[in-house]
Automatic annotation (TrEMBL):
GO molecular function, one term: 3'-5'-RNA exonuclease activity
InterPro entries registered for this protein in UniProt: CAF1_poly(A)_ribonucleases, RNase_CAF1, RNaseH-like_sf, RNaseH_sf
Family of the protein in this entry: Belongs to the CAF1 family.
Superkingdom of this protein's organism: Eukaryota
PANTHER family: POLY A -SPECIFIC RIBONUCLEASE/TARGET OF EGR1, MEMBER 1 (PTHR15092), POLY(A)-SPECIFIC RIBONUCLEASE PNLDC1 (PTHR15092:SF22)
Source organism of the structure: Arthrobotrys musiformis
Record protein name field: Uncharacterized protein
GO cellular component assignments: nucleus
Amino acid sequence: MAPLPSDPEGADSLVMVGAKWEIERPEFDGYLPDLLKLIERCDFVALDFEFAGVGRDPKRGHVPMNRKPSLAERYQEQRASAESYRIMQMGICPVKWDSKGSRGPIYDARPFNFFVAPHVQRNLCSYDRACLYSARAIDFHLKNGFDFNRLYMRGCLYLGHQEEAHIQGLKRQRDEDDVTIIDPKPEDEPMLDEVRADIVAWIKAREDDPCKFLNIDRPEGYNGYQRRLIRQFIRREYPEYIGIWYDNHLQVVPFNEDREKNVAKKKEEDFQKALKAQRGVRLLIDKIMELKKPIVGHNLFTDLIYMHHMFIGELPEDINDFRTFLQQNFSLIIDTKFLAINDDPNKSGASSSLPELTLKFSNQYYPDIRDFPVMKELPHVAGYDAWCTARCFVKLASRMYIAGSRNPPPPMETAPCLDARKEEILLALTTRPPIAGHGKIIDTEIDDKAKVQIPARSSNFWKVFGNRLCVNGTIEGEFTL
């Protein structure tokens, strides 16, 4: 993962003037251009999510307790879970190698945390969402200080690609319905007769007192079908007038072509503005996918499933189709848990949880990485965990590359689409250097420790350790891309 070239101004660091690490809904649009620029300039992005629930839907059944599930069965369980629950918090941490840092060469890390609210803007064709929460997840998050008020009051918006296409379809249907004539039913005639009588009386009264408008209402109000029927009735029988609906009443005014064009233009502008604002944090995921930035996560098989359902749309039924999606949209996916379980050649039970790894690498100074912006631990806060993942990654990958590690066994999956990938892994394994001794990075054997970096993107190291995700508790044990 070779460092990116310096930008035209020669700056290697990730600069975001006045940045805060927690971004809320009112300020998101203002920060968005800088956030996208950080993703453009970084070497990789660490991701972390917090969920409203994870696990089986009790109505869908589950794998018997007397055996491990297969990877395909685990995918179906997590797919069902992602369809039921949602991401409540998203952490991203763009990271870039800075060869000219103020305290020496350093990985410049910029973590950000976003509460992700389920809200939908009102003028998006009445589109709505259902929100489901696991009681166990709520209890877990409350114990870890999760602020649900902040989630709903100030959380950033989002809109999946499939949701956006659905809303666009609703708008097209609404526009078509608006010009499609519907014939009134016999039971509608008394209501139309009342409207006709009011309009005729108003037009006659205008001869003596040119009132500019007529308001029509009734105590029981009008439903959507009646509103559409009355508006079309006026357009058909009184073409020189037009009906404008407000919350509780209809206003009849003389038709004005310029005004109607402006109204239609304003309506379209408001819709597009709401749609743009609703996309929210999905735009960050879009940018990562557009540029095919390497992504790093810890135990991220589940994260990728939820990310697809939340920001892309319905998940493929077959795990191999999900695999194809990831292969097509990401250049390199790195699971720090997979790295960790193959890290220490002298131990069979290597530490692999994120808190364990964070503590484990607290004494390994090189490669250096920018400190977290708040001087306290914030476990299970997505932005903090994304930074911890990035920190563990640069330390772990560098140490494994220089000092050596266990060689992971070939993937156990038997899908034909993996035959070429297995051959690539086996060939790359033959080029792995001998284990040089753990702890070499913090020993004196390296003359210039400040130059210690993660392996270049072209290294065979990533053919062995990249695009392989740990999936504990399954027969295969990993998901290979």
